[in-house]
Design a protein that fits this description.
Length: 360
């Protein structure tokens, strides 16, 4: 029986995690819940699962992680505000099932320094797939990681064809049902850029050996290519309950969480190269990741401001990644990486992005 705290319990990942926990009462015990602001739904969840320990907001979530006895903390908070809870979970010795990629990306070396070996278990479908495939060989046998991308709603369009994109169009993802920020990030492929940085940090593979490939069917969630020419892929119908369940009980599989592929039906999977000219966010993310320090935090914070401005009608779609690039270009990192310097860099990036957006 694994005692679980779910942070971000009212969001997409959080609610699906509760489904997994509810369906496996002999395997998981829910001992804590935290939400960002939706007190009503949080209260309903607490009553349904008979959970006494709850938290509302990022600060209370961190305290919940410190105070409540648990084996696993699922961090499904959206945005870099989840960094405090990530560090709290690692410091408390909990297994961290990480759906909040931003906290690892922003925290970088600080998070890695706080983590014991295998203490962080990825919940993103791509990184869960990589973790599963990497069990097929040793570190010295890996040639490269191949991260798949659906391509989002604008796959196949040139940059010139995306000048008039509306927020409603950007939120029409062809595969996944996600929140506005993550869905928009998938449309710009900023999300894939963040995932490349996350893959480097989680698995220690050089950026030159991490490739993004467009796979619109979203069946192959990522692949590992080995030095002998073999490629191991993890494939399943798109269902986040599978990587969530692995995150909660890694490395053990939970029976019945998802449906398997039907191999008796004719089907086709396609793979396409990423159009870096139309979607420059991945190339920019690799440059940011190589620069390290506070650059990934600046990339993420500038993106959050730009996405908000896009949905408010203050910035065109292509202006999102353009704004990120302009903010990153202006950034001067601090001499020392600390929680405080990260917060200061993020604050600077948000202010700078806002100033640039106003001038557009």
């Amino acid at each position: 029986m694994r005692r679980v705290i779910v942070l971000g319990s009212t969001g997409s990942i959080g609610t699906q995690a509760l489904e997994v926990i509810r369906a496996n009462p002999r395997r998981f015990e829910l001992v804590g819940l935290a939400a960002g602001s939706n007190a009503e739904i949080l209260g309903e969840q607490a009553a349904r699962f008979q959970v006494e320990d709850t938290a509302l907001g990022a600060i209370e979530a961190e305290q919940l992680v410190r105070d409540v006895e648990a084996d696993v903390v699922l961090n499904a908070i959206t945005g870099s505000i989840g960094l405090g809870s990530t560090l709290a979970a690692l410091k408390a010795g909990r297994t961290l099932a990480l759906a909040n990629k931003e906290s690892l990306i922003v925290g970088g070396d600080l998070v890695l320094a706080a983590a014991a070996p295998e203490q962080i278990v990825p919940v993103d479908s791509e990184h869960s797939a990589l973790a599963q495939a990497l069990r097929s060989g040793g570190p010295g046998e890996v040639r490269r990681l191949v991260v798949t991308a659906s391509g989002g709603p604008f796959r196949g369009r040139s940059r010139a064809e995306m000048t008039q994109i509306t927020p409603a169009e950007a939120l029409a993802h062809p595969t996944w049902d996600m929140g506005p920020m993550v869905t928009t990030n998938s449309a710009t492929l900023v999300n894939k850029g963040l995932e490349v940085i996350e893959a480097h940090l989680l698995f220690g593979v050089d950026y030159d050996d991490i490739e993004v490939v467009v796979h619109p069917q979203s069946i192959v969630h990522s692949m590992v290519e080995f030095v002998d020419g073999s490629t191991i892929a993890q494939a399943s119908p798109p269902d986040m309950r599978l990587p969530i369940s692995l995150g909660l009980d890694w490395p053990h599989r939970v029976g019945g969480v998802g449906r398997p592929l039907n191999w008796t039906e004719a089907t086709a999977w396609t793979f396409e190269p990423l159009d870096d000219e139309a979607f420059p966010s991945v190339t920019l993310a690799k440059a940011v990741g190589r620069a390290g320090a506070t650059f990934p935090a600046v990339y993420n914070a500038a993106n959050e401001q730009a996405v908000a401005a896009f949905h408010e009608g203050r910035l065109p779609f292509l202006g999102i990644v353009d704004t990120i690039a302009r903010v990153v270009d202006r950034h001067e990192p601090p001499e020392k990486l600390t929680v405080e310097s990260l917060a200061e860099a993020e604050s600077w990036a948000r202010r700078t992005a806002d100033r640039l957006i106003v001038s557009v």
